[in-house]
Amino acid sequence: MRVLPLSFAVVLAVASALGGLLVLPGGARAQQQASPGTASSSGGSLSQDDIARMLPSTDMGANAARNADPHLAPVNDSPATPFDAAPIPHNPLAPDAQAIGAKTCVACHSLENVQASHSLHVASFRAGAANTGPQAACESCHGPGSEHAKNPTAPGSIIAFTHGSATTPQTQQEVCLGCHAGGARQHWIGSVHQERGLSCSDCHNPMARLSPEGVLAKPSINEVCATCHKDIMAKFNRRSHMPLPEGQMSCVDCHNPHGTLTRPLLKTDTVNETCYTCHAEKRGPFLFEHAPVRESCLNCHDPHGSNQQTLLVAPLPMLCQQCHTMTRHPNDLQVPTNLGNGSTPDERLMGRACLTCHTNIHGSNNPSGSRFHK
Amino acid sequence: MRTIKPMPFAILLGLAGCCMALPAVAGDGSDSMRVGDLQYGNGLDPRGWTPLMAPGDEGMSWLHPGQLRTPSGALYPYPYGPPTRPLGGGDWTYWGLLELGYIHVNGDRNAEFFRQYTDWKNGAALGLFALGFDNRKTGGYVEFRGSRLSADDQYYRLRAGRYGSYKIEAFYRDIPHTVSTSAYPVWNGVGSTDLTLPSGLTPGDSTIAAVQQASRDAPRRSIGLTRTREGLSLEGELYRHWIGYASVTNEERNGTRLWGGPMFFSFAFPSTGSPYGGNGGVLETVRPIDFTTTDVNLGLRNVGKLWRFNAVYTGSFFRDHKDHLNYQNPFLITNVVGLPNAGLVTDGQFSLEPDNDYHNLRLELSRELKWHGELSLAAAYGTMRQNDTLLPPVNCTGTLGFAGGPFQQLIPCADWNTTAALSESSAHARIDTGLFDAKLSFHPSSAFGWHADLRYYKEDNKTRYLAYNPLTGQYGYISENGSQGSVVPGEVGIFDNGYYSTSNVQIANIPFGYDDTLFELGVDWNASRDNSFNLVYTFDHNEPKHRERKRLDEQRLKLSWVSKSLGDATLRASIEYADRTGGHYDYDPYEAYYSASLPGYVPADGIAPTAFTVDAMRKYDMSDRKESKARVILLYPLGESSTVSATFYGSRDQYDAQVGRQNTRTTGFTGEWDWQPSPRTNASVYVGAESTHLKFANVADNEAIVGAAGSEDPSLGGPLYPLENYWHDLDNERDYNAGVNFSHDFGRVRLDLGWNYTQSLSKLDYAYASTAALTHPDAAALTPDDAFPNNHYRSSTFSASLGFPVTRSVGVRLFGQYQSGSFLDWHYLGFDDTLVYDHRIYTDEGPQLHYSVTVVGVMLNVKL
Amino acid sequence: MTRTSILLLAMALAVAAAGRAQDAATAASAAAPAAPFADLRRQAPVRGDAQAGAGKATVCAACHGPQGVAVAPTFPNLAGQSATYLYVQLKQFKEGQRRDPVMSGQAAPLSDADMRDLAAYYASLAPKPAGPADESSRGAQLYAAGDPANGIPPCQGCHGADAQGPRPVPNGKPQPPWASFPHLRGQSAIYLAKALGDYKSGARADNSNARVMQGVAQTLGDEDVQALGAYLSTR
């Protein structure tokens, strides 16, 4: 326990130092900016079109796209934050709706405004608002709000992302991808979650801070995935499992739910490459390879959990005996008398069975290791 | 006990500090693109955030009660908003929480399943320290989270940046993994590369009684490891819409794992009553884990209106600081022909994993097309390489083996215990991979869409190694540290044109690899607003290298249905059918890698080499297979504040194999009810059950004729693999899960209660044509049930927590957890009596059969 | 317990004690406890006995008029008002979330049944006849479309296109307590201005609907309030 104060002191010192460090550049930056709020208080002279034009495009520098759109006035100034220029998405169910600006929205949705300001997503729009005055942070996602404000329950009058909304999942996805295309979502189109009609808001809720990161719809990644994949989550209760219930791992450590180049949504080219990211020692290559190991870790392991040791899909030595019927010792039927408490204890069955001798089963780099016992 | 290594941590943070000065603009996160380090938590708080989950009474909106649901129908939790306070006079605000307290563990605190991934300790613990700073004007932010249960179980994580501009992350974490808490290794030097026998045991010449005594005297130890990871990453705009990403992570993995030690098999040599026991040697040893892995990730992307480009480089550099394990063998190993052995077999050796380097570069390009279409191309090249210096074939000294009459089987160690005995001094191992993927999709109308995908992947193993000893001119190797050659005539592992000319041994590595081409065609049909269908056909053509089949073709059809027409419910159902076939199945594709293919090979007594395996064997990754799967996922909103969800799933696999895996079946169900009547109250109940089944067949060979006429016949039903030696194993497993969780904030006190239960039962049955399938046919009479004892794993955890606010910003939380479990695995039966069985030494007694352990603690909670 | 853990706990307790002292100080400076916040989000439509209410309305008529149309523009017209709205207001006068020199005293002796009956009675009365409203006035425009440039939302979203209450389309989502939103048609301009002023100043803030109106009222300038009053009172 002697080490605790040291590590703890380091953490505290680091945290406070960083806090201090950031105050300084923050203040400096603020001075460079035009005084906020002037645009919003000058009020009356702005038309709805003016507001629409001022409305942000988040795609981190979507000015390129904006400039390519003949319906929007060209911009060449660098916005104060990249959120200052997001386009307002078109709502196919309310084609005539017009933008009304965030201030109008939060006049009624005041509590939403408070809760949402704790979320990264809305906080970033607010940062934009602080710089450019009236803008449609809300409408950058929900589409133009005039129809909704006049008749809030009319189906489709606003782009909505929750249960019972008239907005189609396709429209919902397009709104989010308007800014978040590419990168981790490069393969969203055609991914299994897209094809099953999931909406971004099935897993994310940018309207409140419900998770430490990732504006998730539940407090943790694993809880989000478990909304639908409870059978997989149950496997982590088994005797051998990856440390998900212990909080050390999440589903998204291996899978990218936004779509990838593999069917199980793995982030790497193959199953094995995903496993190697933590189990780098098994990458080798080895002088002597074990064919099913190099082919796929899943031949022998269930990565989510198993009732055998080390995530194996079947008990040893039976796992091995599914393929190994070579002459002499591999192919005998093992029976309980060969157990440690039996009349003829047999190393092929006891303890770690085959692996007690063929220990380098993932491959051997020894010149005498062709059978993995060196 | 270790602590944070201050230097690397300080360097990381220093780097983070420098990066903040970068005038970058842009960048949304790409975390979900990269493997690992997305979750920071521990056994005390798996979410790593729970103390901050205190919803206010207000809810989400003044306009309506309750909480909204996801489009599929699950309730969003009520918002937890950390109250922010202004920091100084500027635009920065901050929030923070410190949870600090004391944990006490009572009962079987060393139970393996209790400690598996959590380093529970008595003493002070940092539940959570979380701090956040936000600048409402610039969008700048800094967030920190940390928790510490012990020096081996802690995390600290910092994120900082400016919304939409750049982001920096730095972390340090220790992850414990306990493999066994009841290990009794007899060797000295556990954790090092040299396991030596304790005084009282003589290498190669100990009595069984002495080994037993040494095992009894061995102290109990834990086997396990700690992963210490630290990392730094930076993401931001580099130049006009080009977003860059860079990260470095480093992991030190230290500890031990259970390992092996073969000195030839022992089951065939029952003790004859000699104090030195039978023959052979089977040693469960302990290996060191001392790894360093450094990963580098670089990414560059451009997201335009039409084009999207993404380039990712991944480099991983693995270093094994203990790349071998030497161990001593206590047992006397003698030959079966009654000659005196030239020397004692005392030393064994393992090569542990070599260092390796890995590079992967992936380029992705997508373009939007008309009709809501997209063309997406991806190509990747990867290479994994290692060129470690090879160890000599054996580490013995002097002379092993025996000589007399026709058996001139001496193994002069000096000819083999030097790297001069190798055809190459280093491994030159390399596998290159290539990936190309092209996908085209169109949705010309909202009702209809289609996509086509072509994926090609290649794994090319370039390793070529010939087991040739230039010192002796012999091929092959020394099997099992010279022990096999010290026991059985002719079976040293060597081939030459003299004494060993009848020996059929592996003389080269087999460079396994494959080319895989996958074509997919899918159509979407939105039949109505509430019903949509999706049909996908996949053709997977695989060309394995040096395997039993040169070609494997799988056709797969999957139909999915998403329905919102059942009231408020969302139903997602799919059925899938796949049929795998392939080319000719060659039961022995490895001939070229064995000495029987070399000139000078002479079949013993004129009989062709013994059949490699039975020709009816179909390995399950290569066999014909028919697969069907079905799955239904239902989310049903029940009233305003609760949700019922259920999944039903099943799969059936039929393998066309007389010998080998024949079928597998899985059927399961889960159900859950979640209730969230107000921000103060939460409850859930869940149940789950799954049944799995696996059946395979094998055939014991007729060992009496090995080397005699007929042993070259691979056919099932032939003399070597007679039908009366045919047998089956049937593995049936059942898993049950249940749990209840409830929490309510009474205002003066917040109560959290939970019970989570899991139970697994495994039953292994077998069937055989005749008792000849058994090693000891007489044993059949002793096991009339034709079944192994049932394995089980049961775990039940009650947890309770009471939180009292003391002031507005200070609270106290008392918590307790009672976990109990029971376990049986027949692999370990008898190990509680002895770990030494004639010429076998076991180290791991196995997980505890019963355990119960209580964790209690008090945490002081301060909102900063 | 080891020495370090004791030390850490002691530190933590010290922080706690400091926090408590601070809290005590702020608590002392706070005002006397107010009436509990009324969460109207689950407010169900209210029903009562209109006939019985008629019998209890004698005192009310003094200000609100014998037919629910106020005797002076300082008092609100109650005729045809939403019963739920009326009930909630009476209840809040009684419980103290809403305060008025006259109404607080008047509501104090009323039983729950009294309040329901009175609410039902006034809801059953015919509203004041429509007036010659100017549909091109700024008030009309604010009511129907708001003024986005100033962040003013249209009133009609909650108070109905005809100012006679909302007509929501059911959609399976959690719904606002529509019935508790007042009808504004024909309401006195002076009373409307007072109500909006009370929302804006926070004098009326102790229920969830008031929290919504607080946000809305803050977007309205004095001229906006007058324009709305002029429009609605003549409608």
TrEMBL record, chain A:
Q: Where is this region: Disordered?
A: 61-90
* Pfam families in the cross-refs: Paired_CXXCH_1
Superkingdom, according to UniProt? Bacteria
Q: InterPro entries annotated for this entry?
A: Decahaem_cyt-c_DmsE, Multihaem_cyt_sf, Multiheme_Cytochr_ET, Paired_CXXCH_1
Q: Which UniProt keywords are given for this protein, alphabetically ordered? A: Signal
Query: SUPFAM superfamilies from the entry?
Result: Multiheme cytochromes (SSF48695)
**Domain Doubled CXXCH motif residue range list:** 199-233, 241-283, 290-327
The identity of this protein, by name, is: DmsE family decaheme c-type cytochrome
TrEMBL record, chain B:
Q: Which residues form the signal peptide?
A: 1-26
Q: Main subcellular localization, coarse class?
A: membrane
User: Sorted alphabetically, which keywords does the UniProt record give?
Assistant: Cell outer membrane, Membrane, Signal
Organism's domain of life? Bacteria
Subcellular location per UniProt equals: Cell outer membrane
* GO CC aspect terms: cell outer membrane
The record ties this protein, via InterPro entries, to: Beta-barrel_TonB_sf, Decahaem-assoc_OM_MtrB/PioB
Supply the name of the protein: Putative beta-barrel porin MtrB/PioB
Q: Which organism is it from?
A: Fulvimonas soli
From TrEMBL, chain C:
InterPro entries linked? Cyt_c-like_dom, Cyt_c-like_dom_sf, Cytochrome_c4-like, Cytochrome_c_Oxidase_Subunit
Q: Name one GO molecular function term.
A: heme binding
Q: Which GO terms describe its cellular component?
A: periplasmic space
Q: Does the keyword Signal apply?
A: yes
Keyword Iron annotated: yes
Pfam families attached to this UniProt entry: Cytochrom_C
Binding sites annotated in the UniProt record for heme c 2: 155, 158-159, 213
Where does it reside?
Answer: Periplasm
Q: Which residues bind heme c 1?
A: 60, 63-64, 103
Signal peptide: which range, if any? 1-21
Which positions fall inside the Cytochrome c domain? 48-126, 134-235
Regions of compositional bias (Pro residues) in chain numbering: 167-179
Q: Where is this region: Disordered?
A: 154-181
PTMs per UniProt: Binds 2 heme c groups covalently per subunit.
- Which controlled-vocabulary keywords does the entry list? Electron transport, Heme, Iron, Metal-binding, Periplasm, Signal, Transport
The entry's protein name is: Cytochrome c553
Organism from which the protein derives? Fulvimonas soli
